[in-house]
Every structure is written in C-alpha cells, then in structure tokens.
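Predicting holo structure, iron/sulfur cluster bound.
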Amino acid sequence: MTKATGLISGGLDSILAAKIILEQGVEVMGISFSTPFFGSQGAERTAKALGVPLRILDITELHLGMLRQPKHGYGDNMNPCIDCHTLMLREAGRVMEEVGADFLFTGEVLGQRPMSQNKAALKVVERESGYEGHILRPLSARLLPETIPEKEGKIDREKLLDIKGRSRKRQLELAKIYHIRDYLSPAGGCLLTDPVFSRRLQDIFRQRGRFEVREIELLKVGRHLRFSPLVKVIVGRHAEDNEKILRMAAKGDDILKVEGYPGPFLLIPCGGDLEDIKKAASICVRYSDAPKDEVVTVIWSRNGKEKKIQVRSCHNSLSTELMI
Ligand code: SF4
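Done. Tokens:
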C-alpha cells in the first residue's frame, strides 16, 4: 500500500490536500510542528477528524536559529516563510524516510502567497529541503512538474487539482463538498505574521545577542516598554495578562503593583536598578486607577521580598515614547 506523510496545519488547504490523497487509497500520516510562534492544536483536531495518526515535531531550536538570519528574508512581518517551509519539509522528509513513506505532501497552492508560493519559491523550498521530486502539492499538482510518486503510478495525476492564485473560491466549494467546517484561517495562528508581535521580536533581536524561549513567550503578554538595551517592562492590560505575568515571573524578576487601587501587574524580566524601578513604578501608576496627581504607594517585589515605594504617575508621553 502506498504510504505518505503530509504536513497538516489545521488550515483548510492542508485538510483538502489530505482528503485528496486519502481518496486515492493512500495511507496517510500527518506531521505538525510546534514552536513558540505556532502550535499544533489545529492539526490535532484535523488529524482526529481525518482519522489519521499525527506526529508533532517540536522545532523550536531549529526555528529560532533560522529566524535570526533567514536565507530568503522575511515577508511583510517577521515571517520567514520560504525558510520556514524549507525547514518543515526537511524535518518532515526525515520522518517520511523513517516510517518508510513513499512521498510527502503539503497543502501549498501555487500563487496563493506571492512571495513564498510562486513557482520559483516552491522549487527553491523543494530543492533546499533535500527532497526534490518527493514533494506533492495535491491542490496545484497539475500545474507543477510531475513528481516521483506520480511517475511511479503511486498517485493518479488526473485526480489531482489545478488550483492557483489567491482566491479561496475553489477551496471553499470543496469544503462544502467534503463537509469541512472546522479549520484555521490561512496563516492563522502564526504570530510571525502579526505586526505587533513582529515589532517586539525585532526589538529583542536588536537589543540582545542571546535570549531564552521564556522571553519569546513573554512577548505574547501585555504592553512592552523598553528602558535600555538590557531593561524593559511588561505591563498587564487585563486580568488574563496579570495572571500570566505572575505565572511567568522567575527568580531575579521585579514585580510591581499599585497598592490600594485596581491596576496592572508590571514585570521587569531579570530585574532593573533603582532608577528603573522608580520609573517602572510611575508607569504602573499611570496604567492603574490611582489618582494621577497624587503620590501613591507601589509594592515592589523581587524573589518574594517586598518593599514599598512612593511615586507619582509618569506623564502619558513617557509611556508612549518607550512603547515597543
Ligand atoms: S506563516 Fe509562519 S508558520 Fe507559515 S510558513 Fe510563514 S513563518 Fe512559517
């Protein structure tokens, strides 16, 4: 029996690609990836609905290494889609070999993303992944060169599709035919396509030579204000942010909170000096319900020890100026 490994993201295109391959009687194993920028929850739901096994690969370290200097650059934000696809296909190709599958398939559509899914980019990704000829794109296959499984008769090319371009019309028609309702939006869930997250990530790249995965996780929470190359503060915007800040705080971090008034928790990852603490405290007051023209008390804790400092709110322009 022909066997294939397929990239499953949980998006409609990857579901349709899997359906088309399954319809040809091929045994399918799904592959999904996890990094701090995107996860596999959508893929897990999809694999369950399709009734196929799923292998989830944590590619965090490889992805972070690539993200610093992607050979083919970034898209509109910090999304290095060509290099990211190459990395995914290289890793998925290894699984294909390990489980003895005949080929690898993806839900890519020719021309859907002008930069990363044009004919040349698809070819580059294929070549650089090391699996040239073994990667089938069922949704656009009839517009692309014949792959090895097609040549070997393991897949019927006539039953593959010829979708191209940015319109989602044909995919949506197919979703109706296959009764597919639960899927992620295109690029849904990839934080590297989000402008605010990308700006914060660029800031870390610019300011810090090395950083930990926790710092990436913190980029997803609150407002970020930079004081200096080594010091920045994160201010909760709502109860959920405040809970996350408390949960993610580590040894050596400073946590601030205005006493006696509703307001945010403020985190200084890896701590700051006294000047930083005072400035952070005034920002904490600015985002709290405390009166802005009075001196109020801010509780400052580090490693479980608490101190109190008296400050006034900073001027609005300071927080605007420091915002990343
Ligand atoms: S959108 Fe994100 S997950 Fe998708 S290829 Fe681009 S960088 Fe990778």
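The longest strand covers residues 27-34.
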